[in-house]
Amino acid sequence: MSVLTNLLPANTSGIETSTAGWTAGANTTLSQSTRFYQGARSLGLTATAAGSVTATTATRVAVVEGTEYQAYAYFANVAAASGRTSSVAISWYSASSGGSPISTSTGAATTLANATTWNTPSPQVTATAPAGATYAALTITVTGLTAAAVVVADVMTLGLPTTWPGNLFGYAVAGVETDTSGWNALSLVTIDRVSTDSWEGWYSLRLTSTGAGSLRSNTVNSVTVVPGTEYVGLSMVKPTATSDVALELRWYTAANALISTTPLTWTAVPGGAWTRLTVIGTAPPTATRAYLALRPVATAAGETWLFDQMALMPAPLLAGTLLSYGVQSMETDVSGWTATSGCTIARSTTNLYRGASSMAISTTGAASATVRMAGTVPVTPRQAYKGSAYFYHALAAAPVVVDVLFTWYNSLGVEIDTGVFRWTMSELAGWYSPTGSDVAPAGAASLRVGFRIMSPGTATFYLDEASVGLGGLGLVADVVPDVYGTAISLQGLTTGGHTHYGLWRVRGDGALTPVRGEDGDIVAVPITGDLAVASDYEAPLGTPVRYLVRVYTGDTYIRMTSRQVTIPEPPPTDIVIKDPLQPVRQAVVTVGSLPDWSRAARQGVHQISGRATPIVITDVRPSRTGTMTVVTATRDDITRMWWTLESGRTLLIQWPTSWGEQDIYVQVGDVTESHIIRWAGQPDRTWSLPLIEVDRPVGGLVGSATRTWDTVEGESTDWLDVLTTYASWLAVYSGEAG
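Predicted structure:
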């Protein structure tokens, strides 16, 4: 018998220092005895006159109404005597001191043996704190003493009873520490309890067969269930001999009509040892109540099975998971998983992270070993999903690499995309938690997650507590074709609790370029929330690119890459000229003539007297220069061209991919706008643009190329806010405050 945490102070429970934690009742004198059940001291209770002795804790402990508590204590005679009984009681109060108890819960009395040994099992009481109870006191009592007789008590305990977290059964049903009244003998069985063997506490429930066949013992009372919710029934069982044992969930309507049962038979449960058995089921649509049935299979009359710590509870699913409990935990089997390459899988009880079992992955020595979910989970496109599991490996010669695999399917079940998130674990033996994420692509309706061990050799790995759900690091890049850019949405920046993030554009050859943000390049931005957005107006046109996000703290990081996007090009005769710092300034124009690039020599030629050849002092050549002509056809084109040029800042020229030219940052010199036709009403123009190649400019984005009146309205409280923020209508359009 045990509680999760004894609410009584150590000295009150063990009397190792003094008897100050107790108040003597009528006819009782307290003392510190050198006899003990545990420690070095116990509480002595001496009868002043013939009768009973009692003691109550001097200080009450805090409790919660509606919560079940257990109390117990161990007793012994100082001198052998007969006719004495011991008991414990919990008194419930609404205040920490004073007043009368709301009620008192008293356990069954236990007769003390006519000896001086400590009596076991000890008396106990299990009770639920009544309405209004906020404090409790423990009282111990021994009856039948003669005057001056002494008894001792030790390990006085009051606290929450030990049971499975979330168990819907009370402790008296789960552990039969009080009696067997919570269980019915229904088929080929008699029931009682024994104190000679138990898994927890002092007692276990014994089922004895009255003939060959399937026995059945049910809980007397049902528990309330919610339709569609997954539940778990479990019990520790110890057969006398190896046999089959089934657990069964029985579902009923509110009118107590049986709807269906969910049985699971465990074959060849070993005799003479405690084994944890589990059954998992989902409450049917009309179910409101459920019972747990214990169903061992007998070959003859007189066979016995011990059961302890029975439970029926909502499945302990990981927060946010989309998996069923069986797939998450492997508590009953590994049917929720398949070994797709380089390994075999089986349920194991030898190495586990939580519960009673895990999945053993036995590798065959192939280049990789892969396990995947047998089924899929539903998903929503453009959302990030994470897959994780607890993963055990033995001591390895090198770090162990595991890929978290994502396979995406459309509504017809056809695979449309895949994703991989790589984890590297230490070579040291132990449990690790590889977690990866990917974003559901457009058209995705379901997801299958897997794990791939790279270069595993021949070994056994263990997987437990798998989870798939919304969240994790993710980014989605969308083309904004009218402004020749991309919009990038980032999710899960708080994953892993890191402090900063960076965002880069990835070319096909793997080269990285930081994406420009409002405060400059996005390479070390403090993380202030889970979501962020960015825009990229410098990505090449007509060329597939990806984006990489990295969240990090110091040298520790998580990273992932988006799917490819390609920004469409204008007609192959046209180029895009844009201001990389103020992307609303851009123009699409037709090229009249390409620049003839030149790179001047930076050198001095010195003729030396007496020698034929000069001495030449050189430096690196400067960047390219040249003059390009472009053509516009409308007055709107003229306005947009000047709008793009007049800031005087560095511009980006993006060429058609078919020209074989690399995009270039340029500074534009003196510009000439020339009439193609001398008639004043004709808007056709040719522009002469002297260009100097320069470095990518430093600075942050100002405004957005997709800025609209909705943007202005969203960022401004009223017209006064607009008029005091911007110096001109041009500034309103560009988003440049001043």
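Summary: The mean pLDDT is 94.
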